[in-house]
């Protein structure tokens, strides 16, 4: 059980949408926005060092994941790292990407470097290292010890059932950070 009391986030630049599940025992540094129905496990670390991080809806960020918008000579300060919707970051993944689209899976212990742009529907396999500047094409799968590549026909399935399960189970075992942002209405979002 976590030793800290649940409460409103102490980071004034942290915005958590209603419906998000953010465990108290994670580290969130800098200007971070977390979308509705996103689940952040304990021991995850998200650091907005050289610019804000905006995380969309329905993402799962598991234990020991590190997501960093760090300083690099090419990026310049203030550049926003946008992570889309329906992504899964598995245990121990390290992401410093320029951008992450929708419906991606970054598997356990994978590393996505600071000059990489992950499009949509991609899978970066367990232990794979992406360190060179590149933009992954939609539906790219990187796998194996040699980081081989192929294109899949369909995007990875959404993890809605897992999110539903986690939103029921996590509050029983972990303190949660309270949401401090109400989601925009659907009609306002369409304008």
UniProtKB/TrEMBL annotation:
PANTHER family (alphabetical): DYNACTIN 6, DYNACTIN SUBUNIT 6
> Per its UniProt entry, which superkingdom is the organism in?
Eukaryota
Q: Where in the cell is it found?
A: Cytoplasm, Cytoskeleton
The free-text function statement in the UniProt record for this protein reads:
Part of the dynactin complex that activates the molecular motor dynein for ultra-processive transport along microtubules.
Where does the protein principally reside? cytoplasm
GO CC annotations? dynactin complex
- GO BP: mitotic spindle organization
- Say which family it is in: Belongs to the dynactin subunits 5/6 family. Dynactin subunit 6 subfamily.
UniProt protein name: Dynactin subunit 6
InterPro entries (UniProt xref): DCTN6 (IPR027777), Trimer_LpxA-like_sf (IPR011004)
